């Protein structure tokens, strides 16, 4: 490293690999950096390789090592401008033709090696020409590491090659390779930088055609075209070389392999978690469906039980109502329907049937209890019978006899008998449930309902027998 602030400080850093055997006798490639030295301007060691200088051909000066010519072969691109000027001055003092001629040396005017020193300074003293020469520095190692070297010592090998090639970076903030504990972000930043590497290296120093030596515009243009094409080809090869270096490091980087495995494990865990969540969801849905089905079955069973309970309750109430009706009928029948004369028989029977059809079980039970206690009085009260206020003449219905007279029947007038006779014609003897159908027929007529209430099968059967006997 060279800094120039009216002074020259040179730090020489060299790298090398040494193949040695360890205690077990196995060959091991070890990375051995040279010791860093800080050199002051008066501490720079300038070499004077006279044998090398005399071996140079001034006509082929582009092939020479300019840094070696000036006596600073170890500093090379790290040498400062001041160091280059100082080196040139020392070469002039020692090897200028006039100096050597004064010492009695033979000088070849047209073929003197001092021309090579002059060309070396003109090349390295001009920043643009020096950059062109540094791009093709013969001491630069363009080789790539082998997979074996990377497997043996990945971080040491990569550090050497990437720091060696970082000299070409346009961006001076070049990230380091890091170590095994580097984060994934640091590793990604490193490889992203090198995959997008911007190199200032160019190959104009190796132009095959000397444009300045050409005569004529067309010839110069053609030479420039050929040189640009060759530079582009070499630049492409250089970028391919750097890309191969990055690919080789990326492929053998143990951190990348670890990160990939961790990512694979993470995805596998996420997949397993997703599958477990899906399985749980399916199980929850299945359980919910099962619970809903059980709840529905339970509700249906409860509804059926409720309906069955209501049915049994209605059945019990119905049987109890039948029992109370039967009790009332039996009591009334055993007491001849509490009639005072035969003409009241049909009316009392009708009253009993009306009570049975119109009253509920509580009312029937109460009436039965009252009849057991009070007898006739309770029956008359329940049937709403009151003969004390009746007129002396009783409402009677005459039935036509053979001699033209009429027989009076209580509760049945001529119109009711007419409907009864009509119903008997419609439902003749032998008809299934004849008396119920006759009673239903007569109950359909609202006029009859207003006069005597509801007809029962027993009522119509009794009246039909009386009509048959009177015929």
- Class by SSE composition: mainly alpha
Give the helices and strands as they follow along the chain: EEEEEHHHHHHHHHHHHHHHHHH
What is the 3D form?
Answer: rod-shaped
Low-confidence parts: 1-14, 391-410
Estimate the mean pLDDT confidence: 82
Order of strands side by side in the largest beta sheet? 1-2-5
Largest sheet: 3 strands, antiparallel
End-to-end span in angstroms?
Answer: 153 Å
Strand content: under 5%
Helix content: 55-70%
- SS elements, strand count: 5
List keywords for this structure.
single chain; 471 residues; mainly alpha; 3-stranded antiparallel beta sheet; two-stranded antiparallel sheet; 5 strands; 59% helix; rod-shaped; disordered N terminus
Structure write-up:
The protein has 471 residues and is mostly helical. It has helices spanning 50-54, 66-70, 81-95, 97-102, 114-125, 127-134, 147-152, 154-165, 184-195, 217-252, 254-334, 345-358, 361-374, 376-383, 414-426, 434-443, 446-452, 457-470, and strands at 2-4, 8-12, 17-21, 27-31, 37-39. The strands form two sheets. The protein has a three-stranded antiparallel β-sheet, with helices on one face. Strands 3-4 form a two-stranded antiparallel ribbon. The longest helix is centred in the middle third of the chain and has 81 residues, at 254-334. The protein is rod-shaped, with a radius of gyration of 67 Å.
Provide the fold topology.
Blueprint: E1 2-4, E2 8-12, E3 17-21, E4 27-31, E5 37-39, H1 50-54, H2 66-70, H3 81-95, H4 97-102, H5 114-125, H6 127-134, H7 147-152, H8 154-165, H9 184-195, H10 217-252, H11 254-334, H12 345-358, H13 361-374, H14 376-383, H15 414-426, H16 434-443, H17 446-452, H18 457-470
Antiparallel strand pairs: 1-2, 2-5, 3-4
């Amino acid at each position: 490293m060279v800094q120039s602030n009216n002074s020259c400080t040179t730090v020489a850093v060299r790298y090398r690999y040494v193949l040695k055997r360890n205690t077990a006798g196995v060959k091991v490639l070890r990375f051995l950096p040279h010791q860093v030295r800080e050199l002051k301007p008066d501490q720079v060691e300038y070499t004077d390789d006279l044998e090398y200088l005399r071996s140079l051909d001034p006509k082929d000066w582009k092939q020479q090592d300019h840094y070696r010519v000036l006596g600073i072969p170890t500093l090379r691109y790290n040498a400062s401008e001041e160091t280059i000027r100082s080196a040139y001055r020392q070469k002039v003092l020692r090897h200028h033709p006039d100096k050597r001629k004064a010492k009695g040396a033979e000088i070849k005017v047209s073929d003197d090696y001092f021309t090579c020193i002059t060309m070396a300074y003109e090349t390295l003293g001009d920043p643009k020409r020096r950059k062109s020469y540094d791009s093709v520095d013969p001491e630069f190692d363009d080789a790539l590491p082998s997979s074996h070297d990377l497997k043996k010592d990945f971080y040491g090998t990569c550090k050497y090659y990437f720091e060696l090639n970082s000299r070409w970076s346009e961006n001076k903030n070049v990230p380091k390779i890091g170590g095994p504990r580097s984060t994934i972000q640091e590793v990604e930043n490193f490889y992203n930088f090198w995959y997008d590497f911007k190199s200032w290296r160019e190959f104009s120093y190796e132009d095959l055609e000397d444009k300045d030596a050409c005569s004529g515009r067309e010839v110069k243009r053609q030479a420039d075209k050929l040189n640009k094409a060759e530079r582009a080809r070499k630049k492409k090869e250089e970028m391919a070389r750097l890309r191969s270096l990055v690919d080789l490091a990326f492929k053998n980087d143990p951190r990348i392999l670890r990160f990939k495995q961790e990512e694979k494990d993470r995805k596998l865990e996420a997949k397993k978690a997703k599958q477990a969540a899906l399985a749980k969801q399916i199980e929850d849905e299945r359980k919910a469906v099962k619970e809903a089905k059980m709840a529905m079955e339970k509700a249906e069973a409860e509804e059926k039980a409720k309906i069955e309970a209501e049915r049994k309750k209605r059945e019990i109430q119905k049987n109890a109502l039948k029992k109370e009706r039967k009790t009332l009928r039996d009591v009334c029948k055993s007491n001849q329907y509490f009639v005072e004369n035969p003409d009241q028989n049909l009316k009392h029977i009708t009253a009993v049937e009306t009570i049975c059809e119109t009253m509920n079980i509580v009312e029937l039970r109460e009436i039965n209890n009252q009849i057991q206690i009070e007898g006739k009085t309770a029956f008359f009260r329940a049937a709403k019978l009151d003969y004390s206020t009746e007129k002396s003449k009783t409402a009677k219905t005459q039935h036509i006899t053979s001699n033209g007279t009429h027989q009076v029947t209580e509760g049945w007038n001529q119109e009711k008998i007419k409907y009864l006779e009509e119903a008997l014609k419609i439902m003749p003897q032998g008809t299934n449930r004849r008396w119920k159908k006759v009673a239903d027929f007569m109950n359909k007529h609202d006029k009859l309902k207003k006069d005597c209430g509801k007809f029962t099968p027993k009522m119509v059967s009794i009246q039909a027998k009386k009509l048959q006997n009177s015929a």
